[in-house]
Amino acid sequence: MSDAVAIGPLVLPWTFVHLCIAVAMSSAVATLLARRRRQDAGPLLWRCLLVALLFARLGFLYQYKELYVEHPLSILNLRDGGWSPEIGIIAMWMYATFRLRNAPGLRVPASVPLAIGTTLIVAGQLQLALQPASVPLPPLQFTRLNGDRLDLAAPDGKPVLVNLWATWCGPCVREMPMLAQAQRDRPEVRFVFINQGEDADHVAKWLSAQRLMMDNVAIDERRQASAAFKQAGYPTTLLFDASGHLVAKRTGELSEPALQAMLTRLR
């Protein structure tokens, strides 16, 4: 299963879809309870959602604060996957408990929707976490820009980070300099950049124009990698351990802290 869902040209991470479903279900239940009990917990529930999102982001920022200090503007990049859902949920319930201590009439209208939303979020996270982690690197072969063959599944004793990208993809373009630097900084990880659907001449000219120097840039005009990994959009980054088993994946733009969070899965 991919970690994103394609709706026409729009590609949404499953975590975002789970959040939308949880909010929709909680809102529906809150509306029903408000009609029956004549107590509207809607404003409180929306504040709880804002608290959850704020602290989920702050929790991740604190965990990788050294990297965000070096690149402070990346704090504003809310699409980088940098969230700590467990911290957000804890903060949300603490806030709700505090606000409900003197409002007994709102306890049921607020607590029931919050419990339903929390259950759906946790179930969604478990669904993603319990996906088969033993998916191996597929035995695909590509041609590097220098003409050499690249055997994706060739054992070399290193973890492998695979990035599927294209020059027309805005998020791919934005994250590429960071990934190029990470390749230089992390020689213990084999970085493989597999361009999807474009020819070698175009990719080489684009990289030269961007002044990007990277190893293991491969051409996949038929998009075999996208089919093998069942990925819905670009950029897609997949991390395999030294034995060739999938340990993390991300569809969407990565920041340096988000990449670091992926690499910690290797420990």
Automatic annotation (TrEMBL):
Molecular function GO labels: disulfide oxidoreductase activity
Pfam families (alphabetical): LGT, Redoxin
GO biological process: cytochrome complex assembly
Domain of life: Bacteria
InterPro entries: Lgt (IPR001640), Redoxin (IPR013740), Thioredoxin-like_sf (IPR036249), Thioredoxin_CS (IPR017937), Thioredoxin_domain (IPR013766), Thioredoxin_ResA/DsbE_sf (IPR050553)
Gene Ontology cellular component list: cell envelope
Lineage: Bacteria, Pseudomonadati, Pseudomonadota, Betaproteobacteria, Burkholderiales
Keyword check for Metal-binding: no
Domain Thioredoxin: 131-267
Protein location: Cell envelope
Name of the featured protein: Thioredoxin domain-containing protein
Keywords: Cytochrome c-type biogenesis, Membrane, Redox-active center, Transmembrane, Transmembrane helix
TM region positions: 12-32, 44-62
